[in-house]
Automatic annotation (TrEMBL):
One of its GO terms (biological process) is proteolysis. GO terms for molecular function: metalloexopeptidase activity. Residues 93-306 form the Peptidase M28 domain. Transmembrane segments: none annotated. It comes from Chondromyces crocatus. This is Peptidase M28 domain-containing protein. InterPro entries: M28_fam (IPR045175), Peptidase_M28 (IPR007484). It comes from the Bacteria.
């Protein structure tokens, strides 16, 4: 096996956008939007800077062009985020909506993604194409598609600011501020039927996952997993994962990784969409030409179709903080481990130790598919470790395989 892995990796390389020439009609506009947001002129859109404010104004213009209206109660697309302890404004969330066809609707749908990034770091200027300009472009592409579906419930398009450190987890985080002081048109955050949050949806480094979008958190809401599975978009594989497979890191408490966290804390049904971290995460190499624009276009169409399905569902969505779907977790991890442990299909950077661990992970998750299998805490830990090692390889952080 070690020899096969060595031979396999001799010709292995990380994939990039050049490996997936855009052919989808939505892709060129999405690329233009990513190139603008991740342009050197905007220096990474760091909160508190002129460039962050320029990016916010650009997003307001793009929402208007996409047919997303400003909120009447706000009078614009911009909702200020005040600083801590009475400090000055740290930036703006950019928020618009598509009103529903039913003026008596008591629930709303929300889609969101953060638009800020790091800017200058010790590694150099980080412009944030995948993190998170790609997600912004996906939601902007989805907006006209959502409008065309004429949903009964209103849909809020929320571009959160101040998601990156040092704001994450604080009252000044954009999504936390939105949930703490929602607009009058929404009322209470509890009125959200479903919040869909995107982060890192453009990158690709592994051929086997090139057309995959991971959907996390559906297990916390009754019936949502079935809706996710029922919505199909040609050329896109949406694979469900429990949010615990993303958050549970060895030696740490569960670590939330994006803006979905505040909605979960408030027991709002949520779905977190991502294609996963790549070695370009928070690096100067996270540039527009590294993204898979056709997959992003398919993701936009899939999101619009999902919102229509959720809007049309008669049964209410019920949030369950203890909800889990371990068979779905096992299905996704079995697919991933089978591909990753197969010579000539492995993830770039896989070495002999990684391959041995992947073979063990594959054997464990395959055992979970036995008819009538009763899941144990040890099974849950095995799934989490398998997910952790997969993420480490995709992120090019092989020390994870010592766990």
């Amino acid at each position: 096996m070690s020899l096969l892995v060595v031979l396999d990796q001799l010709g292995a390389r990380r994939l990039s956008g050049a490996d997936f020439p855009p052919r989808d009609p939505l892709s060129p506009v999405m690329r233009e939007q990513v190139e603008q947001l991740a342009s050197p002129a905007w220096k990474g859109r760091k909160p508190g800077t002129r460039e962050n404010e320029e990016a916010a104004r650009y997003l307001g213009q793009q929402l208007e062009a996409s047919g997303v209206e400003p909120l009447p109660s706000v009078g614009s697309y911009f909702m200020p985020i005040p600083g801590l302890r009475g400090g000055g404004r740290v930036g703006d969330n950019v928020v618009g909506w598509i009103p529903g066809t039913d003026p008596e609707a008591r629930e709303a749908l929300l889609v969101g993604a953060h638009f800020d990034h790091l800017g200058e770091t010790e590694d150099g200027l980080v412009l944030g194409a995948d993190d998170n300009a790609a997600a912004i472009a996906v939601l902007l592409a989805a907006a006209p598609l959502v409008r065309a579906k004429q949903l009964e419930r209103p849909v809020f398009f929320t571009f959160f600011n101040t998601e990156e450190a040092p704001y994450f987890g604080l009252p000044t985080q954009g999504s936390v501020r939105f949930a703490t002081a929602p607009p009058r048109e929404l009322g209470a955050v509890s009125a959200i039927r479903l919040a869909v949050v995107l982060d890192l949806v453009g990158g690709v480094v592994w051929r086997a996952s090139a057309d995959t979008l991971f959907a996390c958190g559906a297990e916390k809401t009754s019936g949502l997993g079935a809706m996710v599975d029922s919505v199909q978009e040609q050329g896109l594989a949406v694979r469900r994962m429990g949010i615990h497979l993303v958050e549970n890191l060895p030696g740490y408490r569960p670590q939330p990784v994006s803006d979905y966290d505040v909605f979960r804390d408030k027991e709002v049904p949520f779905l977190f969409l991502s294609s996963g971290r790549t070695p370009r995460y928070h690096k100067p190499s996270d540039l527009p030409d590294t993204l898979h624009y056709d997959r992003m276009a398919r993701s936009a169409r899939w999101i619009a179709a999902l919102l229509a399905a959720v809007d049309g569902a008669e049964a209410p969505l019920r949030f369950d903080p203890a909800g889990e779907d371990l068979p779905a977790d096992a299905d996704t991890m079995r697919w991933a481990m089978t591909a990753a442990a197969t010579p000539w299909r492995s993830i770039p950077g896989t070495g002999p130790l990684s391959a041995v661990r992947l073979l063990g992970d594959r054997a464990r998750v395959e055992a979970l598919s036995a008819p009538g299998h009763a899941y144990t805490p040890e099974d849950v830990l095995a799934l989490e470790r398998a997910s952790f090692r997969l993420q480490c390889l995709l992120y090019s952080f092989p020390v994870c395989f010592t766990f």
